[in-house]
Structure formats: structure tokens, C-alpha cells
Amino acid sequence: MLQSDDAGGRIPNPVVERLSVYSRVLMAMLRDGENMASSTGLAERTGFSAVQIRRDLTFLGQLGTRGIGYDIRPLHARLEQILGVDVERRVAIVGAGNLGSALTGYTGFREHNFRIVAAFDIEPDRVGVTTQAGVEIHHLDDLGAVAAKENVEIAVLAVPVAGAQSAADVVVRAGIRAILNFAPTVLAVPPGVRLRNVDLSVEMEALSFYLAQRS
Amino acid sequence: MLQSDDAGGRIPNPVVERLSVYSRVLMAMLRDGENMASSTGLAERTGFSAVQIRRDLTFLGQLGTRGIGYDIRPLHARLEQILGVDVERRVAIVGAGNLGSALTGYTGFREHNFRIVAAFDIEPDRVGVTTQAGVEIHHLDDLGAVAAKENVEIAVLAVPVAGAQSAADVVVRAGIRAILNFAPTVLAVPPGVRLRNVDLSVEMEALSFYLAQRS
Questions:
Q1: Could you tell me if A1 lies within 8 Å of chain B, comparing CB atoms?
Q2: Is the model more confident about A150 or about B28?
Q3: What is the rounded distance in angstroms from the CA atom of residue B62 to the CA atom of residue A209?
Q4: What's the helix, strand, coil split of chain B in %, to 5?
Q5: Half-sphere exposure (Cβ direction) of B113: Cα atoms closer than 13 Å
């Protein structure tokens, strides 16, 4: 999703998002037994232009050969390295209501090397429970201790709007430097902490745009 | 989120996603009592370049004045019209497990004129229940009848991977032309049906990218 936060490195945000898409497409091509990819072929599979794709991939260094294309395996490996998913990233879910519980079992995370190691809540009837996906729900007060023990690097906020800022503050105090926020509200975090907001209504607007064009 | 599906109209997909972002920023500026926006000011608030913003907004026609900027109110109204959210869009949630139940109460949808009018499931203990957010759960077999009666335009698929394609088939047979899919799998839909896939691991990779850059 498009974001207003500052770039974390020398690669601009929109490029990083496209690199994720290329990584998925290349993985699918590997599964299909393919070894080489052309920018034209990648354009067909992603909807981005071949020019855009070639430009984006120059951020990774010289990996393609003119007239031949890209060797998929090293390109995919380099993308995973750049995206930081060549190593497992340990994740805590903050808020174990319907959304948080669903996220503890989201297979899309596990497939991309994100491992949910703990969940947190403040409701007495949730704390101590293990979610369907086998993740234990701790009290939010224990986040600092559990996050340190479990080497949590990313926190996913799945809490109501009213509790989102105070939950973010707890996460920041625990030394976690990356936050994915699902609450539809603007959160303040100090410099050095990366915040991404998931706004599902942006996804919906791409559909309503389509409906409006057709009517 | 970046998508591989074909453009639904003359405005390219990435532009549509940025229009959603501009719409949100302009709404916030209106709430703050501002009346005029410059492309530089929008650039600061969105992270996109002023050049990009001016180019994107030309898709809406000539709404800005050189050296003065954009009159926020008509620009925001035009964006809502283009994005098809100047009218209410009626939405069905397919799959009323943790994720689907959470989505029936997602305030971010309601704020942007998306109204969840029904949910569907096949589990006997869910059918007939009303979610916390007050949405009735019907049997999936009744989707065609309920969707017609309730004028559903958009279906959100929040079902397990194993049931995603058959759920999509039911939605398509009901005449619904826009689908937001949360199941991390590739679905086939006929031409004329717009499918968007939400891949939450792409959001996570923007965070792991940041962590990898810093380490």
C-alpha cells in the first residue's frame, strides 16, 4: 500500500513494493520450472512496463543480460536479500481480537519468512489463551520481556483505534523498530521506528473506481 | 497494494492508488481548516514528488492554478467521484471466521462510503448469527438471492485458501463484478470481473527491507 513515511534506504518506497511483486512472480516462475525471465515477460505477469522493471532492477546491480534476460534463481535470491527476507523475521501481534487472531494464522506471512512468535492483549479472557494457529496470548504489560526473549523485530497492531497510540508506545518502549498498523488512525512514533499503515479502504477504492468507470 | 490485474479504465492502477492517498490527505487538510493545497505541500504530506502529483492530477482535468495551487474542496469532490465513492458501495463479506468478522466491523470501510450489508459462511454454527458489528451471517447458498436483494456490488473473500476458488465462483455466478481477495492464492475469474488480491506479506516486506538496511 502507498505510504507517506520516509524511505528507509536508498531505494524509494514504491520501488521496494514492486520488488516484492517481482519476487513473488519469479518464485512462481521457478515453481513452473522456468530459469530465465525477460523484462517483457515480467511486464506481462506484473502489469508494470518493461522499462519500469529494468529500471527498478538496476537497484540490485547488473543482473540481466541484454537480449537474454535475467537468470531467475540469482535474481530471486538477491531480491529476498534486499527485502530482508533471506532470514527469518520474528513478529508479535498486538491485539488478539478477531483481526489479531486471524493474523496469527495468516499463511501468507509464514510463506515469506515472517514468524509470529507471540500475541498480546489486555482482555483477561484472552490472556493465557493459545490461538487456533498455536500462538500464545500474553498480557500487553509483558510485551517488553517477551519481545526481548523472543527477539521480536516487527509488531503488528490489530487493536481498536482508541487503544492504538498507547499500544504503539508500548511497542516502541520495547525497542521494536518496525510497526505494521491496521488501526485506521494516524500514529506518532519517534525517528528510527518504521511505521506502515495498512488502509484496506484504499484496496476497496480501486474496485469502486472500476465500478464507477463501467457504470 | 500493487497488483497485476489489467487497468479498469484510462487511469493506470498505480495512479488510482495514489489518487486514494491524495483523497485522504485532502480530507485531513479540510478537517484542519485548510482551503488551498500546493503540489509541494501535498508532496510533503504524501512522500510522492510534486512533479508526480501534478502529473497524476492532470487525469482529473485542469483543477490547479499555477503559483496558487489547488482549491481543496472541488479537488476532493472530484477525486471521490473518480474513485466511485461519491455514492455508497454495498459490500458482502464471504467467510465469517476471525478475519471476516473483523472486516464486518472495520471502521475504515464505513468512513469511505463502503457499507457491509451481509456476511456469508458455510459453517452451521455461524449461519444465522449476527456479528459484533451487527451484520447478519447467511449461508453461502443464499448469496445470489441476498446479493440481489441488497444490491451488493463488491465481495470481500475472507475464506481459507482451500475454499477460495469455489467461493469466488459463487460470487461471480451472483453477478458481482468486483472482488477483494484476502486468501493468499491465485484465483481465476472471467473477464468483466475485477479481482484485487490483498497480500499482507508485501506490507511486511517493506518493514523487513528497512530492518535489513539498518543491520
A1: yes
A2: A150
A3: 20
A4: 45, 20, 35
A5: 15
How far is B165 from A186, CA to CA, in rounded Å? Answer: 35
Q: Is A206 part of a structural domain of the chain?
A: no
Render pLDDT for A118-152 as a digit per residue (tens, 0 to 9). Answer: 999 999 999 999 998 999 999 999 999 999 999 99
Per-residue three-class SS string for A7-67: CCCCCCHHHHHHHHHHHHHHHHHHHCCCCEECHHHHHHHHCCCHHHHHHHHHHHCCCEECC
- B191-213 pLDDT, tens per residue? 999 999 898 998 999 999 999 98
Q: How many CB atoms lie within 10 A of CB B74?
A: 11
Best of A209, A211, A214 to disrupt the B interface (most B CBs within 10 Å) is A209
Query: Measuring CA to CA, which residue among B197, B7, B56 is closest to residue A214?
Result: B7
Residues in A touching B197 (Cβ below 8 Å):
none
- Distance, CA of B196 to CA of B178 (rounded, Å): 8
Q: What is the number of residues in chain A?
A: 215
Q: Which of B33, B52, B82 is the last residue of a domain?
A: B82
Cβ contact B146:B118 at 8 Å: yes
- The H or E element spanning position B179 is strand B178-181
Q: Give the domain-ending residue among A82, A108, A141.
A: A82
Q: B100 and B162: one domain? A: yes
Report how far residue B17's alpha carbon sits from residue A207's, in angstroms, rounded to the nearest whole number: 11
Q: How many residues does chain B have?
A: 215
Give chain A positions within 8 Å (CB) of B106.
184, 200
Q: Quote the ipTM score.
A: 0.88
The range of the structural domain enclosing residue A62 comes to: 13-82
Which chain B residue lies closest to A25 (C-alpha atoms)?
B4
Asked if B204 reaches chain A (Cβ–Cβ under 8 Å), the answer is yes
Residues A76 and A96 occupy one common structural domain: no
